[in-house]
Write a structure and sequence with these properties.
Helix content is about 35%, strand content about 25%. By secondary structure, it is an alpha+beta fold. The protein starts with a strand and ends with a strand.
């Protein structure tokens, strides 16, 4: 029975792709699962089992939805994803819980079922989809469907600037307008269209330019983000195509030419006290079992 579930982190929005685009990142939640005579879930860093853990609650919800009893097991969580930093930790946890139920209950869920259940819990698919499928995903919600397309062929290095401070998604949501004027929304939508077109055509200078011209959320959130302008400007000096918030922040991501990530990271790390500065891989597998 022993197996490991691994789920990547994700970065939503990518500038103007607000609430629809997401990119899977090479940071992971792992669940190490083995047979036991009773249920026991050990949270990351804990030596005592936790009775009401978020991931296990999701697992039980999925099992109840499909009328399946779960066999007793021991689950150890190991997480590389910092909480409340804009790296999709809640979506990764949801996907981990769904996959745990799928494996323990032998539910044989389809990708569409997993996406639907995850979106139902999370409220939107922009982080759920990349955590499930890997790569870049573009998704939306229809009344009876969640269409999603994927792009795995992105030839860029990513640099993440992860501050020590947290930013709750609810706080970052509250600063956004309730509505957008029609012409403004049309311009904002056009920026998003160009981001996608530039990625598919590998026009990375255009991608970076559009990345930094979001109108949907970054103009309203930037005052909540330490060093927003300084990070963007310095990364641009060092050759980055563009820099944007990861999700709602406070983490920021720079996209640079393939092979230049380490050089840019080393320089940026010297400029940013109180940050983890990391070169991250783009995860192309999504949730996996080993």
């Amino acid at each position: 029975m022993p197996f490991r579930i691994s789920v990547p982190a994700s970065s939503a929005n990518l500038g103007p792709g607000f609430d629809s685009m997401g990119l899977a990142l090479g940071l992971y939640i792992h669940l190490d699962v083995e047979a036991s005579d009773h249920h026991a879930f050990f949270a990351h860093g804990s030596e005592k089992p936790q009775e009401n853990h978020f991931i296990w609650n999701i697992t039980e919800q999925v099992a109840a939805r499909y009328g399946t009893a779960l066999p007793p097991c021991k689950v150890q969580e190991v997480s590389e994803i910092p909480l409340a930093r804009g790296l999709g930790s809640s979506a990764s946890a949801i996907v981990a819980g769904i996959e745990l139920a799928n494996q323990l209950g032998n539910l044989q869920l389809t990708n569409e079922q997993k996406l639907a259940f995850g979106t139902e819990i999370e409220g939107h698919p922009d982080n759920i989809a990349p955590a499930l499928f890997g790569g870049l995903t573009i998704s939306t919600m229809l009344d009876d469907d969640i269409p999603s397309v994927r792009l795995h062929d992105i030839e860029l290095d990513l640099i993440a600037y992860i501050p020590e401070v947290e930013l709750k998604t609810e706080v970052a949501r509250d600063c956004l307008p309730d509505t957008y004027e029609r012409n403004y929304a049309a311009r904002a939508s056009a920026m998003s269209n160009l981001v996608v077109a530039a990625l598919y055509s590998k026009d990375y200078p255009l991608f970076g330019k559009m990345l930094e011209n979001d109108l949907f959320h970054e103009p309203f959130r930037k005052t909540l983000i330490p060093n927003f302008d300084a990070i963007r400007e310095k990364a641009k000096e060092l050759g980055a195509f563009g820099t944007a918030l990861s999700g709602a922040g406070p983490t920021m991501l720079s996209f640079v030419a393939k092979g230049n990530g380490e050089t840019v990271k080393e320089t940026m790390a010297k400029q940013l006290e109180g940050y983890q500065v990391k070169v991250l891989e783009i995860d192309t597998k999504g949730v996996s079992i080993s």
